[in-house]
Structure formats: C-alpha cells, structure tokens
Design goal:
Elements: E1 5-12, E2 20-27, E3 30-36, E4 39-46, H1 51-61, E5 71-76, E6 90-95, E7 142-143, H2 144-147, H3 150-156, H4 159-164, E8 168-174, E9 180-186, H5 189-202, E10 211-215, H6 221-229, E11 234-237, H7 243-252, E12 255-261, E13 264-269, E14 274-275, H8 277-286
Parallel strand pairs: 3-6, 7-14, 10-11, 11-12
Antiparallel strand pairs: 1-2, 3-4, 5-6, 8-9, 8-10, 12-13
C-alpha cells in the first residue's frame, strides 16, 4: 500500500462552470512516535517514508547524538493497535553502548505539528541548542550563479510534490560542484530537514562541511538551528527568513540566503561565502 499519497474524491468548482467530481491525490500525514530505548521522546506529524532518517536527524537536531557510530538501530514497534498490529507509526531507536539517553527535559508533553517542530519544547531556554560543530570557520565559497541553479534542481526532484502539490522539500548540495547529494520531502519542513540530516548521519558525513542546505519554503529559526547542529555552513531558501533565523545565522557564522529565485537572492548573513566568479574574472581581465 502506498502510504505517501492517498486518493480522495473531490469536487472541482470553477465559478461560472458546472462542478465536476474527480479523484485527487493528497499527501499523507500521519503521526510518528519516536522512542529511544523504549522510552517515548516525541510525536511528530509527518509523511511516512525515510522514518529512520527522520528519527536520526531529530536526535542530531536535539543534540542527543553527533556521529553515525552513536546511532545503532531503529525498528518499528508492533502492538500499536488493540489488535496488536504494526502501524509503522512507532519507531524505537537504540543508541550505541555508552551514549547517554536523551535528557528528560527534551521530552515533549504534546505532539509537534507538521508546521512547527518547536511547539512542545519544555521551556524557552531549551530552544537554543549547543552544536558540537562550528560553521564559522568553514572555508566554503559558493559561486552565486551555481547557487541560483539549486531551486530548479530541488523542484525537479520533488516527485511527490509533482503529484500532490502538498509537500515541502529539503536538499543537500555540494557547495563546490553543485551536485545534489540527497533530497527529502515531507508535509513538515522541519521533518524534511531532519530526514536530510539523518541521511547524513547514517552515511557518516557529519559534520556537513562544504555543503548548502536548500529548502523549498521559508527559513525559520528552527531550520537554521538544525543546519547549525549538522555543521552546514550555508542555508538557502526560496522564501524569506525570520528575524530570529537571521540573528542565529549571524551568531553562528552561517551564511543565510533568502528569496533565491531566478537569478537573484537576498543575503542576510555570511555574505563573504557567496562569490561572483564571472565578475571577478572580468575585473581581473580589466586590470
């Protein structure tokens, strides 16, 4: 059964025309309970698929783990219904021996929605998480013209969005070559980013030096923090960042780019990493 999309009968109405009934595809949204060592940690609303990546990335974002060797296994738990069936909506993570379990303060008293991954934080003090990696000294410089190709590459890779129009996406690019390393989709923008980071963890790629994280929507504080936790030096978004996202990026020494569309962009922090190669070459020739 395809759990990423669902079919539903809908009424198509255009003012002045007769209504028509047809079948439409919707992006699936279901809860995922993440457990660590059998103990519930959080519930997030997500699109099923790449759930292990999601759980791994979530643990990186929360500062629980920082390296692939600290993440041992993850398995779906049976018995989620009265009949004892496996709904594939409860995932139990086992950390490597010696890795400290999540601090009880991270446990969320209610679920996180697909639009907000911070909603269950116990206190405002827990929002700013200390990263194991510093992005301030990352020497990456990204050619501006190369950077402008990332949104189209991201959009071309959104297979489920093409069918439903209802998913966010996040993709990781090599900042030097422009090669897309991984792309993930989800109803929650924070989940899409966690899936990308979780993939990097399981591939032993952390910290993600020399990379660019491209997101399909806006750049929130939370997405900026997740990029910082994974050691990503550049975050780019097709829409606007929030004031707190720009503030955090500046503090962390991260490059934050918004309104990356067509051939233009707005750089909110770390502008020294975005270079115009062709302009530099022409200036050099002129000299």
């Amino acid at each position: 059964m395809n759990r990423i999309t669902a079919r539903r009968r809908v009424i198509r109405l255009t003012v002045g025309d007769r209504p028509s009934t047809r079948e439409d595809l919707l992006a699936v949204e279901e809860p995922l309970e993440i457990r660590v060592g059998g103990r519930p940690l959080a519930v997030t609303m997500r699109t099923p698929g790449h759930d292990v990546d999601l759980a791994a990335g979530f643990l990186v974002s929360e500062g629980v783990i920082t390296r692939g060797e600290e993440f041992r296994t993850a398995r779906y738990c049976a018995g989620a219904t009265e009949e004892g069936l496996n709904t594939y909506n409860v995932l139990d993570v086992t950390l490597a021996p010696g890795v400290a379990p999540p601090d009880p303060s991270l446990e969320r008293s209610f679920y996180t929605t697909s639009s907000c991954g911070l909603c269950g934080k116990a206190s405002i003090d827990a929002v700013r998480t200390q990263s194991a990696y510093s992005v301030a000294d990352d020497p990456l410089q990204v050619d501006a013209e190369l950077l402008t190709t990332f949104p189209d590459t991201l959009r071309a890779g959104q297979a489920v969005f093409e069918k439903t129009g209802g998913l966010h996406a996040a993709a990781l690019f090599d900042g030097a070559t422009g090669r897309m390393l991984v792309l993930r989709e989800d109803v929650g923008r924070h989940n899409a980013v966690d899936k990308v980071i979780g993939w990097a963890l399981t591939e032993d790629r952390l910290p993600l030096t020399g990379t660019v994280l491209m997101v399909s929507g806006r750049a929130s504080f939370e997405l900026t923090q997740k990029a910082m936790m994974a050691g990503i030096p550049v975050l780019a978004a097709v829409s606007a960042p929030s004031s707190l996202a720009a503030e955090l990026a500046t503090e962390a020494g991260m490059t934050l780019v918004g309104f990356l569309r067509g051939g233009s962009m707005v750089i909110y922090s770390g502008g020294e990493r975005v270079v115009e190669t062709q302009l530099a070459l022409s200036d050099g020739n002129a000299a």
